[in-house]
Amino acid sequence: MALQISDRALAIKPSATLAVAARAFALKAAGKDIVSLAAGEPDFDTPEHIKAAAVRALAEGFTKYTAVEGTPSLKRAVVEKLRCENGLEYAPDQVLVSCGCKHSFYNLVMALLNPGDEAIIPAPYWTSYPDMVALTGAQPVVIDTGIDDHFKMMPAKLAGAITASTRLLVLNSPSNPTGEYYSRAELAGLAEVLLPHPQVVIASDDMYEHILWHREPFANILNACPALYGRTVVLNGVSKAYAMTGWRIGYAAGPKPLIQAMAVLQSQSTSNPTSIAQVAAEVALTGDQSLVRERCRIFKERHDFVHRRLNEMKGVRALPAQGTFYSFPNMQEAIERMADVDDDVGLAERLLEQSEVAVVPGTAFGAPGCVRLSFATSREDLTKALDRLETFFGRR
Ligand SMILES: Cc1ncc(COP(=O)(O)O)c(C=O)c1O
């Protein structure tokens, strides 16, 4: 008899970005000269002073369970970070440290949503949001935004999507996959729409806060509208800013009852995040930040290069991003020119087979016709990949 797999597990799909990265890796291992622009992580190494702190913790025997919600000193570091960098005040019991920001978001939807609830997710979205919402039995309500709106949700669209069942709005700025950033004024516009709907919690995913070159300093919706403090959960982590994707440390800060419910869920699933990774994360947050700024400058340089080269290709239209390490060009015109390619998924397959360049199809982010290119890779590999793409598409 076939083993039963739960309806819950069958209702969701594996992460598309991880799947493309795995395929590119397998082809590379088989001897193909694949250049992967699929990675969702910095190519840089974790800074030495952070690694050294973890080695010290290990040598000193800091290898046991910690408090489920994170060590008191890491939580204090998070509280300080949110106060100094973001102008937001939290008590330590309003903070939960988890196994990566993905886990923070998972805890949030599990603690907040019931079957039948609705969660508004603007597209293009980080590929995991709708699946994690679906796992709770709630309904992801996807709002399409177009390239002409710079892939940003306008207040009228948000207003049109809120119903009595709406319990969550997900905001991610700067955005994975578009690199677009909501200015403080744009966030204030969205907040105006949200104020009369107290049943809606806002998840502000600030993961790419430090990889931003917009003329404004970083702001999230709470900076634009402090009145939303009682129903906003700020999500962040050390993965992208400090090149610590493998260490698995993320955190959430928000209203105490919700954070505590998330902590109970965590206590019955993963328990505490890894002890030595917590020590490393604390040093990341409290130590020298100059490397973070330097790496952001390098990402911006690469962005300018990628953006210019993409727009020189036939049928490709890329907007300038404001942050992150992604470009999200629209390739619909190029797709329509090709007799044997129907959509972005087919295009990504062709690019992998023919040009040996791995990109992630926009469909994975709720935006067919686009693809996501990561420039978290060396300038040499970027040049190689873009030369190949130019040969594939032709010059304008
Ligand atoms: C927007 C966004 N949020 C959260 C995460 C998850 O980060 P972590 O690696 O800390 O789980 C990612 C990772 O790709 C992301 O792009």
Descriptive account of the structure:
With 396 residues, this protein is an alpha/beta fold. It folds into two domains: 7-45 and 290-393, Aspartate Aminotransferase, domain 1 (Alpha-Beta Complex); 62-286, 3-Layer(aba) Sandwich (Aspartate Aminotransferase, domain 2). The chain has helices at 7-10, 16-29, 48-59, 72-86, 101-112, 128-135, 155-161, 184-194, 221-224, 256-267, 275-286, 290-311, 332-337, 344-355, 379-393; strands spanning 35-36, 95-98, 118-123, 139-144, 166-172, 201-205, 232-237, 250-253, 326-327, 357-358, 360-361, 371-374. It has a seven-stranded mixed sheet with strand order 2-8-7-6-5-3-4, sandwiched between helices. The protein has a three-stranded antiparallel sheet with strand order 9-12-11. The chain has a two-stranded parallel sheet with strand order 1-10. Strand 5 (166-172), helix 8 (184-194) and strand 6 (201-205) form a beta-alpha-beta unit. Helix 5 (101-112) crosses helix 10. The termini are far apart. The chain binds pyridoxal-5'-phosphate (PLP). Residues 40, 100-102, 126, 172, 176, 205, 207, 237, 239, 245, 250 line the site of pyridoxal-5'-phosphate.
Summarize this, please?
This protein has 396 residues and is α/β, with parallel strands linked by helices.
Number of strands: 12
CATH topology descriptor of the largest domain: Aspartate Aminotransferase, domain 2
Strand line-up across the major sheet: 2-8-7-6-5-3-4
Task: Give the averaged pLDDT, no decimals.
Answer: 96
Indicate the low-confidence ranges by residue numbers.
Answer: none
Unique ligands = pyridoxal-5'-phosphate
Question: Which CATH architecture of the largest domain is right?
Answer: 3-Layer(aba) Sandwich
| Overall tally of domains | 2
At the fourth level of CATH, the homologous superfamily of the largest domain is Type I PLP-dependent aspartate aminotransferase-like (Major domain)
CATH class membership of the largest domain: Alpha Beta
